[in-house]
Design goal:
By secondary structure, this protein is α/β, with parallel strands linked by helices. The protein has a single domain, classed as 3-Layer(aba) Sandwich (Rossmann fold). It has nine helices and seven strands, in the order βαβαβαβαβαβαααβα. It has helices at residues 12-23, 38-43, 61-68, 92-120, 141-161, 180-187, 199-213, 221-232, 244-256, and strands at residues 3-6, 27-32, 51-55, 74-77, 123-128, 166-173, 239-242. The protein has a seven-stranded parallel sheet with strand order 3-2-1-4-5-6-7, with helices on both faces. The radius of gyration is 18 Å and the shape is globular.
């Protein structure tokens, strides 16, 4: 059984995977961004005593150090944020903030944990990417861009630490109805002045959003099971994806777009 640290575990895919891992006997450090999320998250593990729920804001250097001091065998980098709106108008600072969480802070957390893994002779690091890192979604570009960048990080890191006995794995969820996409979609209305856009343009944004949400699966079961497999495999694959039907159609979508 492994000691598994997972970030951004308040709900959705991460919480589903964490519960499954704990129920299978692993010790799971299920971390959440804010203190006020701890109680509700603990309640989700009522059927197991293998989960330890604690705060981990990956932007906070002290929190990252606390996490790095844990006896981690497997790190699952899941914490992420997103933003939305036309790239021609969005404040670049908003995009920088998204990169800070999804890429830079994620790497800053991973580095000291890899050092600890190296000292003890091995470990495993999972990065939760997205199908959005392969197929850009118009008007959700800040999030898409970070997931494209994460692909490059994982590709290089995997080769760099493999000789150290550390596996680096990418997990790519497709569309799941966790509320994450919906939250990102509403972010643009905090800064967009709708009077500056034609109704035709606004209708196009809504159409793109509907095409995304219509493809979302209600259950996170399929991707959570892939995360469990990525944690437990003796020789893990480089990449795990779900749902398979969305990924089979991805090359066609990229060609059409």
């Amino acid at each position: 059984m492994a000691n598994i640290l997972i970030t951004g575990c308040r709900g959705g895919i991460a919480l589903d995977a964490a519960r499954r891992l704990a129920q299978r006997g692993h010790t799971v450090y299920a971390t959440v961004h804010k203190e006020e999320s701890i109680v509700a998250t603990k309640a989700a593990f009522s059927k197991t005593d293998r989960a330890i729920v604690q705060k981990l804001d990956i932007l906070n250097s002290q929190d990252r150090q606390t996490a790095a001091d844990l006896p981690v065998d497997v790190l699952i980098n899941n914490a992420a944020i997103g933003d939305s709106g036309p790239l021609a108008d969005i404040d670049v600072a908003r995009i920088q903030r998204t990169f800070e969480t999804n890429l830079f802070a994620t790497l800053a957390l991973t580095q000291p944990i890899i050092k600890r893994m190296t000292d003890k002779g091995g470990g495993r690091v999972l990065f939760i990417g997205s199908i959005a890192g392969h197929i850009p979604m118009p008007f959700l570009a800040p999030y898409n861009m970070t997931k494209f960048a994460l692909e490059g990080l994982v590709y290089a890191l995997r080769q760099e630490v493999k000789p150290l006995g550390i596996d680096v794995v990418m997990v790519n969820p497709g569309g799941y109805h966790t509320g994450f996409n919906q939250k990102n979609m509403t972010n643009k209305y905090t800064w967009m002045n709708l009077k500056h856009y034609s109704q035709t343009y606004l209708d196009r944004i809504k159409k793109e959003e509907r095409s995304l949400t219509m493809a979302e699966l209600k259950s996170t079961r399929s991707i959570a099971k892939r995360i469990v497999a990525a944690c437990e495999a003796t020789h893990p694959k480089k990449r795990y994806v779900a749902p398979l039907w969305q990924w089979l159609g991805a090359p066609i979508v990229r060609w059409i777009k």
